[in-house]
From TrEMBL:
CDD domains, per database record: A4_beta-galactosidase_middle_domain
Residue ranges of domain Glycoside hydrolase family 29 N-terminal in the record: 36-171
Protein name: Glycoside hydrolase family 29 N-terminal domain-containing protein
Record organism: Conexibacter woesei (strain DSM 14684 / CCUG 47730 / CIP 108061 / JCM 11494 / NBRC 100937 / ID131577)
Matches recorded under InterPro entries: Class_I_gatase-like, GH, Glyco_hydro_29_N
Domain of life: Bacteria
SUPFAM superfamilies named in the record: (Trans)glycosidases, Class I glutamine amidotransferase-like
Amino acid sequence: MQLSAQTPPVRSDYQRGWRRMLVDMEIPGWEQRFLSEFDAGAMADLYARAGLTSVMFACKSLAGYCFWPAQVGPEHPGTAGRDVVGQTVAALAERGIAACAYYSVIFDNWAHEHDPDWRLEPVGGRRRTGTTYDRHALCCPNSPGYRDYVRGQIADLYGRYDVGAAFCDMSFWPAVCGCRHCRDRCRSEIGAELPATIDWTDATWCAFAAARERWIAEFQGLVTDAMRAARPGIAVHHNFALGPVHWVQGVPFAVTEHSDFLGGDLYGDATEQLVVTKLMGNLSRSRPVEFMSFGTVSYSEHVRLKTAERMRSQALAATAESSACMFIDGIDPLGTANARLYDRVGATFDPVTAFEPHLGGEPVEDVAVYFSDASKVDFGENGAPLAERNVRADSYPHLEAVRGACRALQRAHVPFGVLTRRQLGELERWRVLVLPNVVRMDAEEVAAVSAYVRAGGRVYASGYSSLVETRGVRHDDFMLGDVFGVELAGEEVGRVAYATPATERMRALTDPQRELSWDAPRGSLAGGLLRLRPRAGAVTQTLATLSLPYGHPHLGDMDDREWASVHCSPPWTDTGEPAIVRARFGAGETIYSAHDVERQQFDVNERLFAGLVGDLLGDAWTVRCETRPDVWVSVFDHADRRTRRIALLNSPAALVPRTTLRIRPPVGARFEAVQELPSGRPLAFETEADGTARVTLGTLPELTMVAARWGGEQA
Ligand SMILES: [Zn+2]
């Protein structure tokens, strides 16, 4: 029995601080000068110099070495006899900096060498990548011996030192493991041999994929329980960075039960930070969540620093979203660090400090984008031998659609959140739900969405949403077909297709284009072009019809006449079949698009998607903003302060001379004052007939906060 899921989340001093750093200590032990100059006091001085509130410090390296006098496992030869962990805990406490003790699993060269029975054995053999990744040696979380080792080491470490917070890194599958322990569990739990072929329409494959996600969640639970057993009251979090990543890494969103809050290190663009921060915000058992990233340009770069502007943008974006921000540094082989980076981190965090007392609150989200952890797959992999495809892909169709949807909503300044199945029981809190090409859904999700719309909810859905059941069943029609108001007539190969607007509103949304282009996604079941037909008895309006190029489905070449223009494939035949349909269902409404228009980052796609979602939202909005599209608008309610707080992020800084904000008060309330934060400077505002406050802002700095306070005694 696992304890971790049953206890309420623990709040630590570490989590309460907003400005954080971690220093990785990934130095091996075979050179006697390695880490010889490490000085815990000098490092703590650097942390203080950077103005940090919270520090995560390494207790163990991925090479397997411990930085304390370990009773279980090897002590690092370069620090042996110095108890770096103990010295660091003391040095941080002296400086009033909250501490979190970093531990790591699965990636452990020493343990891999120590006992062959502990080894992770990738199906198809270990792939060499020609990168530093080849330096890692891996252990299997299903190996009973390795699990005992981890338990013993955690008991030793966390039992010994008085720390309020613990972090566990690397608890994911580096690859699909085919060791005897994994094969035994597969046989006993799903009643079949470990499948040799990837197939998301095969029940055995899907059962195996679900099992290995369960095993990672169970392993995270084992780690959390061991940490809590060693030090009752400790706050634990696991790195969630791999949660949104391709299925090979096997981290289900259910792992959130084993973390008191979520954090993850990210290396992508600003949209990734926005999507993952919002995902963690609604998934985490407590807030704030933690955005982590290196101060260098990547985790595999030791010298080259990010620009000061990039670091500031990341820190201000975290602040705009009310998440904590961590920069990561890597220790030099001798154990020293580049002090100038800590100066830069300090300068980066400096503008954040004044906002900190105003952060937190409950996110206000008019629109919800659904992120499905069952959909971290690509149907293009179906039929591939596992031994040849046992490596994670950079992306997958659902993620691309989620990213596109979030980016379009951000640019339209619609307050939105990212939901998961954790919110299935409370969907009515959101006015509009977006299902962005949710390629696998289960009966519980289908029932929840159906009930939500029947009761008055609004849904935008696209692509394969609800066609394939998570247990591995490809249905002939959408499971939500009655809700969408259409039937699936078939699927075929189509490289290019077009949606031709059928209403004035659609023509306005796509103007000055006459049609909307659609390119087939990378992975598909049977070609990716979905053909629809009206559903008998459904109350629908066709918003756009499917148009096809001359010669469809042939691309055409010099030997045939299956093309109409030599460089491109213009629309030729309008099929008259629905491509985008609006339907009434119960008291609610849906828009279903066979084309995942939100996936592609083109101006017209963004405009059309945001326009359709805006039509579903209707007059039920909370905040509207006219400003430059790049500006992020995030809204939080602080009921205890009777305040609705709006953050406007304009970073990297651009000239935005004028911004208009319209803010609606909660039902029955009326705004009495609008202030700029953190200055408290009153802002002039007009009140519209329905109580909406209208505020006009002058030139935007990189981060602006506006607080609208409604009437009554302030708590
Ligand atoms: Zn294994």
